[in-house]
Design goal:
Blueprint: E1 2-7, E2 10-15, H1 18-26, E3 41-42, E4 45-46, E5 61-62, E6 67-72, E7 75-80, H2 82-88, E8 91-95, E9 102-103, E10 108-114, E11 117-122, E12 127-132, H3 135-138, H4 142-145, E13 154-158, H5 170-179
Antiparallel strand pairs: 1-2, 1-11, 3-4, 5-6, 6-7, 7-13, 8-10, 9-12, 10-11, 12-13
Length: 181
């Protein structure tokens, strides 16, 4: 997940690094490009989960950029992890690929817009898109409410299942997040 922040209508792009992005995302000036404030905004600062409060299921693998991949039979379901959706705040738009599109591991496949930032998402495994969560067109907030359930993005027919081994387990992901605090 790489973020494009809009602060006082001047965009800049940064490779998202947990510690620095938390400071940037808490900056109330980020909200000046929209009049949307979430119920959990207190005095211009978002209330975000502690690392220990994150939901990182153990049946999922995690990419460095905070996408997740779950093996379901011979298919892989993909979405944005709990850490990313929490950092982004209210998600207001999700742009997904078409069924039949093919991507290599690490290629951009989706864009997510929140009240704080626009992020590109990168496919954690190579393959063909065989299903797209069309519910996100009308209800992008499902990513916030249920990132591993109703908020999934796509299903992939993977071209190389061994790529799942290059992704992090929940324990490794959690340790990496703790190290970034």
């Amino acid at each position: 997940m790489r973020m494009q922040y809009v602060i006082i209508d001047k965009p800049f792009t940064s490779i998202q690094h947990q510690a620095s992005s938390i400071r940037l995302l808490k900056d109330p000036r980020v909200y000046q490009h929209r009049d949307i404030y979430k119920n959990n905004v207190e005095k211009g600062e978002m209330v975000m989960k502690e690392i220990s409060e994150l939901n990182l299921p153990d049946d999922i693998r995690y990419a460095e950029d905070h996408e997740w991949a779950r093996l379901e039979g011979d298919k892989v379901r993909v979405g944005l992890d709990d850490y990313a959706q929490d950092q982004l705040g209210d998600i207001v738009f999700v742009e997904l690929p078409q069924v039949g599109d093919t991507f290599k591991q690490g290629e951009e496949f989706a864009t997510v817009e929140s009240v704080k930032a626009v992020v590109e998402c990168y496919l954690p495994v190579s393959g063909e898109i065989i299903a797209v969560n069309t519910d996100l067109e009308e209800s992008p907030e499902l990513v916030n409410k249920s990132p591993y359930g109703d908020g999934w993005f796509v299903e992939v027919n993977p071209s190389d299942l061994s790529e799942m081994d290059s992704l992090m387990t929940n324990i490794v992901c959690l340790e990496k997040l703790k190290g970034a605090e």
